[in-house]
Design a protein that fits this description.
The protein has 307 residues and is mainly α. 79% of the residues lie in helices and 0% in strands. The protein has one domain (5-119, 157-272). Keywords: Cell membrane, Membrane, Transmembrane, Transmembrane helix.
Length: 307
């Protein structure tokens, strides 16, 4: 398959599926592991896998690191350590529904950042698509309660997750703006490595990771393996490929699919969505398609079947 815009869409959807599944799998990881320790174990597996793949596919080139080491460290700290640390820690006091809604605002902030950097406003159709998909996500994750005017309370965890979502927006835009002459695989590998190192230092500072890992259950360790390989290695790589091919703004709108996939997994586990959630799913997909503008559903499915 060629690295076309349509392929980038498929890869981005796969990435968001893995991230959506992380919501459920993370519950098993945190059942017996503290948040920073679970994050470190997750990226321990992820870094090993991504560098094995990098060495086999492209080789490890020191000139790429020498040219971008500063960007890799900063983006790894913000997009890997910052986002994932905020996610794990924030969920300790944040309501999962509220947390998902906060994370769903990431495409908007990413598009705003990209517009500021390039000094141009997004097209009207992209703005309309973002608004519609965000409203759809709000219906899905609040089960329609947001529309009914329910009281909204901001917990400490909510603010932490919001800061993490801003970090992911900076990461999404930054890998396209600040990283030079590096492939998506190289960018993923090096930012993930430096992010994992930063996570490790934080874990040793606030927790006792070695002791915590020894008391972790088999299910928690297995969950970390899944999150590390699927929800980190594959997801980060495919997401970065989408950013390089299509741009940060056009790729970021797909982040709205994360809670949609999370809901689908819940349905497979026996939780049936309400009518308002079903409407929200349709609105989210319509908003993404509208934001794509030039790619229709018919063209997308024809491309997938043809390849």
């Amino acid at each position: 398959m060629k690295t076309t815009s349509q392929l980038a869409i498929v890869l981005t959807l796969i990435a968001t599926f893995f991230w959506g599944s992380n919501f459920q799998v993370t519950k098993f990881a945190l059942a017996s592991l503290p948040p920073w320790t679970a994050s470190v174990e997750r990226f321990f597996y992820a870094v090993i896998c991504i560098f094995i793949f990098l060495a086999w596919k492209e080789g490890i080139h020191s000139k790429v690191l020498k040219k971008n080491w500063c960007a890799f460290i900063v983006l790894g700290a913000i997009g890997v350590a910052g986002f994932n640390g905020a996610f794990f820690v924030g969920l300790q006091s944040s309501n999962p529904v509220t947390a998902a809604l906060i994370v769903a605002t990431t495409p908007i902030s990413a598009n705003i950042m990209e517009a500021i950097i390039y000094r141009r406003l997004p097209e009207f159709m992209r703005i309309a698509g973002m608004v519609i998909s965000l409203l759809g996500v709000a219906l899905v994750i609040t089960n329609g309660q947001l529309v009914l005017g329910g009281e909204v309370q901001v917990a400490t965890g909510d603010m932490i997750i919001f800061m993490g979502s801003l970090g992911w927006s900076i990461y999404t835009v930054g890998i396209r703006v600040f990283v030079k002459d590096a492939t998506p695989l190289e960018t993923t590998s090096w930012t993930m490595l430096f992010g994992a190192i930063i996570l490790m230092f934080i874990a040793f500072f606030v927790e006792s990771p070695i002791i915590a890992l020894s008391f972790g259950t088999f299910e928690s360790h297995l969950a970390c393996i899944y999150i590390g390989i699927g929800g980190s290695t594959i997801a980060y790589l495919f997401w970065n490929m989408g950013v390089v091919i299509r741009g940060a703004g056009k790729t970021a709108i797909f982040f709205n699919f994360v809670p949609i996939f999370a809901l689908i997994i819940q349905v497979m586990m026996g939780d049936v969505p309400s009518w308002s959630q079903l409407i929200g799913i349709v609105m989210t997909i319509m908003g993404v398609i509208l934001g794509l503008r030039s790619i229709t559903v018919d063209k997308l499915f024809k491309y997938i079947l043809r390849n």
